[in-house]
Amino acid sequence: MRCPTGFRKTPSTSLALAGVLLIGGAAFADMHAARAAGERAEAARTSRLAIEDVVGLVEARGYTNVLEIELEGGRYKIKASDAAERQIELVIDATSGELVSGPSTAEVEALAQDLAAAGYPEILELEVDGGRYEVQARDDAGREVELKLDIETREIVALEREESDDSDERDADDDSDRDDSDDD
Q1: Is the full-model pTM beyond 0.70?
Q2: For residue 88, what are the CA distances in angstroms to 108, 127, 132, 169?
Q3: Which of 58, 73, 154, 183 gives a 20 to 30 Å CA spacing to 97?
Q4: Phi-psi region of 59 (alpha: psi -120 to 50; beta: other; left: phi over 0)
């Protein structure tokens, strides 16, 4: 039997082609394994955790869908999602695997409940900066806002709206936008 290319299709050519494909697939698998082994060797040489170990630590903390991992000065900066698909930023020590910065999933849930009660039912992103949570959220009207909250009290200390007419930052103690004139 002749193929349109002029090659003769025989059991031996079919067998040879299958062998080439098998060897190529094995070579690809070996290449992937070698890359992973190289990353592990580099991590061992520098005494830092391998990326796959960091992903395992993040997942063990209850986060899923690791979106980004960046090594900065001996720490891994990680963006991952929680079960409600909120993007959370965590910082993990690259050597010990200890959480340096970032909330637990229970802390995120408690914060989400507090913010929902305050009129911000949807957290889009959350990170820790110093002694504050920095939160991108949506308010009851669906507008994006950036909130800064005290970590200990979870009180809003600053608010910035994404809309151009309300883009100024205000202190949480400034209640000038609320109408409290019902006491008259």
Answers
A1: no
A2: 9, 6, 14, 23
A3: 154
A4: alpha
